[in-house]
């Protein structure tokens, strides 16, 4: 049996009747959707470089900085970002709309007086009115220097986080021309450096307005391919940070306790999303190694995925493999022979392109897929050495052609076997006590939904 879910899953891209088990060390077959591959190829490092250099040209994008100048400061930056999204939306036949998400942030530790802040939400409406799913890709456009309260210095923020902003923008440009059954939101948020305020506002809104957010992808610091230590060079790997035990949000305490009591602490919705990203990203992007990091975020750091986790949504953070901390949150200067500052010449635009392509493949595959199966249960009414699973078809949107039942050893990070069924149940000759399982919907073209980890049912 292959140790890598990837090989196993890529091998089985063709539809087979009933249950199918993989032979040992299966040969890898990669089946790509030509339309998704075409979009992936259209993501351009030249455009990404143009966006990042333009964002840097505003000198400062500090959240509390100038909003009156036409050429510098956070106000000019957000107006330019919005105008660019509107230019992309012109290709969408009216399906893509661009809006400021405006709110007043009260005084807080890093906000010295109430401040009017503006996120940019670019919404590519799904074509199926019954399909309520929403996918979000996000980066923060604000920047900072050594003193987080100083709005007036030169704070280019090329990597942190013009790189992530460029991912959302370049994806909007490519995807505006396409249609998907589910909705995709390309988001550029502000206030991250002051305390995740922009993303918190959107996450709270999403919860209050019952948005069906199926996944949120946060790109923050995705452009640097060498560590502070010069021997750390890596333009191939990207980290996906995902939490294990879900953040306890109001009302989900029982659910979290139930998950943990049966060993599901490695199968939170965000962890399933991370595995899905590895499988899908590596299917479409060459020379890409998606590294699953089993943590919510790095030490001493946070990001815009966290407010979404706190509202109970699946969310992950993407960040380059090795960070150069002389280029983050630093005044531009030379000290003891070391250059500091987050300047665009230190961004590897081909690497940002690779990360953007990974994001695109995941969003396109998810937004094209049927919704997840509902009420996925593992039957525990008797003590047996088999595994019986049952579920319901997704309530809304297109009907799946079938389902994959995913299986892995309890000690394995990735799914190892995949059984295709067209029914809404499965009976496997493997003990539920000895393996982990999940179920995902799949359409006739092979687009898979996120996997759902089963709950015990009678
Ligand atoms: Zn950042």
Topology, element by element:
Elements: H1 5-11, H2 34-42, H3 45-56, H4 73-89, E1 96-105, E2 115-124, E3 133-140, H5 158-175, E4 183-189, H6 192-195, H7 197-208, E5 212-219, E6 237-241, H8 253-261, H9 269-284, E7 289-293, H10 305-310, E8 315-320, E9 333-335, E10 338-340, H11 349-368, E11 374-379, E12 387-392, E13 402-409, E14 417-421, E15 425-428, E16 435-442, E17 455-457
Parallel strand pairs: 3-4, 3-5, 5-8, 6-7, 11-17
Antiparallel strand pairs: 1-2, 2-4, 6-8, 9-10, 11-12, 12-15, 13-14, 13-16
This protein binds zinc ion.
Biggest β-sheet description: 8 strands, mixed
N- to C-terminal distance: 31 Å
- How many DSSP H or I helices? 11
Work out the number of β strands: 17
Which distinct ligands sit in these coordinates?
zinc ion
Average the pLDDT over all residues and give the rounded result.
92
- Strand order of the main beta sheet, please? 1-2-4-3-5-8-6-7
Rg, Å, rounded? 22 Å
Q: Which sequence of SSEs, written as H and E, runs from N to C?
A: HHHHEEEHEHHEEHHEHEEEHEEEEEEE
SS content category:
alpha/beta
Task: Give a written overview of the molecule.
The protein is built from 11 helices and 17 strands. The protein is of the alpha/beta class and 458 residues long. A hairpin with a 7-residue loop joins strand 11 (374-379) and strand 12. The model is unreliable at 7-24 (pLDDT under 50). Bound molecules: zinc ion. Zinc ion binds next to helix 5. Residues 140, 160-161, 192, 220-221 line the site of zinc ion.
